[in-house]
Specification:
Blueprint (H helix, E strand, L loop, with lengths): L3 H20 L3 H21 L4 E3 L11 H9 L3 E6 L8 E4 L6 E3 L5 E3 L9 E5 L2 E3 L4 E2 L5 H8 L5 E5 L5 E2 L13 E3 L4 E3 L3
Parallel strand pairs: 1-2, 1-6, 6-9, 7-10, 9-11
Antiparallel strand pairs: 2-3, 4-5, 7-8, 11-12
Length: about 190
């Protein structure tokens, strides 16, 4: 692709295609894939240093990381969920437990109501798509990229998605940040060095 506009249109079309593919999964297939992702993700989190973990609230058929929450809390890990406080800025991560009071955020995605700010050492982020260099295709808002660009020190990043969402390239742009790991139902990918 030669122009920024062609890439923008291609990325929009791929988002739409990959979300439709994810939503079309039969329930039994989804449960099987989610269970495999959960096993790999939990094993990776157990192996990584860092006590605070930023998760996400699942939408549009994404893997649901909340099922891991109870076990992570039992391991004395601190959990946080993102909130949008500035549409052009980074995400704000707020302390989260199962009993945390939630409020609707941007696009009605729930976020913790109380602003107990956490700076996660590990971020788990959903991937609409991803490529061999561990660049992520998200929803196009740039929130996770801005969050990573603003984070100091940079957290360890883990993308979560379906193996079928692997693309030859996402045509990364200057603002895109490669993730340290990608977890799918089929494998764990570490970012090429």
């Amino acid at each position: 692709m030669s122009s920024a506009e062609e890439i923008r249109l291609w990325r929009r079309a791929e988002r739409k295609r990959l979300i439709a593919l994810r939503l079309a999964l039969p329930p039994e297939q989804r449960r099987h894939k989610d269970a495999a992702i959960e096993r790999r993700l939990e094993a990776l989190l157990r192996a990584l240093p860092g006590r605070s973990i930023g998760l996400y609230w699942p939408v549009r058929g994404e893997f649901d990381p909340r099922r891991l929450a109870e076990r992570l809390i039992a391991q004395n890990r601190s959990l946080a969920l993102p909130a949008v406080v500035d549409r052009q800025g980074p995400l704000e991560y707020r302390l989260w437990r199962e009993e945390t009071e939630m409020e609707p955020g941007l696009h009605d995605i729930p976020a913790p109501k109380r602003r107990e700010i956490v700076r996660p050492e590990i971020l788990v982020v959903p991937c609409v798509g991803f490529d061999a260099a561990n660049y992520r295709l998200g929803y196009g808002g740039g929130y996770f990229d801005r969050t990573l660009a603003a984070a100091a020190p940079r957290p360890t990043t883990i993308g979560v998605g379906l193996e079928a969402a692997r693309l030859a390239t996402v045509f990364p742009q200057a603002h895109d940040v490669a993730l340290d790991f990608i977890v799918t139902e089929a494998r764990l990918r570490e970012r090429p060095r």
